[in-house]
Amino acid sequence: MSPVVRPAPFLRRRRALVAVWLVVAVTTGVLLALSRVTTGPLDDPDPARQRPGYLDDGPLPVPAPQVTEDIPAPGRRAVIFFVRPSELEPLCEALPGFDPGQEVDVAVVLVGEGGRCPEPIPVVADADGELAARYGLPAPRDGGPPVGYAVVDGAGDIRYRTLDPEVASLLGEVSTILRAVS
Amino acid sequence: MTVRRSGTEGRNGLRLCLWCVLAVAVEVALFSSYRGHDAKFHWFTHFFVGASMALLAMAGVALRTRRPVPVPLVWPLAGHLFAMLPDVLFNVGIAHQRWMDLFLGHISSHFVPGRNLTWYVVFLACLAAYLAAVFHVGERQDRSTGAPER
After folding, report:
1. What's the pTM?
2. Which residues, other chains included, contact B56 with Cβ-Cβ below 8 Å and sequence gap of 6+?
């Protein structure tokens, strides 16, 4: 019978320790690779710029172009949604449940024509994407028109803008940004 | 060769596994809490940054106390929770602000060149540093107790 030789206490645990951390390192690496693969065509090419959650990123604030005759209006905050025709219906269905608080105007800019939202939310056609470009929304990964939103403060400046292809289901986040804007 | 495990070792291993399961379960819950598919990007940044800082702290504590830290998987979880605290505040309606960089660069850490790939490499480097520190103190501990090595 061969003699029983027990390795030192720490060395006995070394393999288990390395194995546990190897699993952590490999798992997080695989998940990171998967997350890059599952990026959508409407996402920002730079994920760090999508839904950053803070005001005045980069060159902001900058003056906001008029979307309608009275949006944005002096002394009133505004949120301008930018959508493609395929995203208009879910957004319009979600907007009646959107409670942005007092003194907030809402407008929808549609790349295309013929869309409507429940009153009193105006839908503005932006067939050539000029308005989206003037608001400085970046082109998504597919190179088409942006889907996202911009938030304008009472002084008429753009304080926040982001691509957000899932904005219809994330309107609570828009409320959070609006609360931060005076 | 026959190696028998004592009852104490078995209980210690079980306790370690329970901490592992707890840490993994909390991380899965945190991952799921990021709404919107693009938000996973933020989970990765704060996980890698928080875990990296925790691993460096673990290495420092191990070298100073000359013994491996207890419940090692919980430390990165704590680092991650600290780094992502502004996201918890965001979920209750408080938008991000620049001062939130106090939480391990919560805002600016997203903008490093290479983005999350860079932070993954940093995480691996910190993990290597931690393991090197633990091996160093562990082998010293074994030598000082006169335990045989294999």
Report:
1. 0.87
2. B126, B129, B130
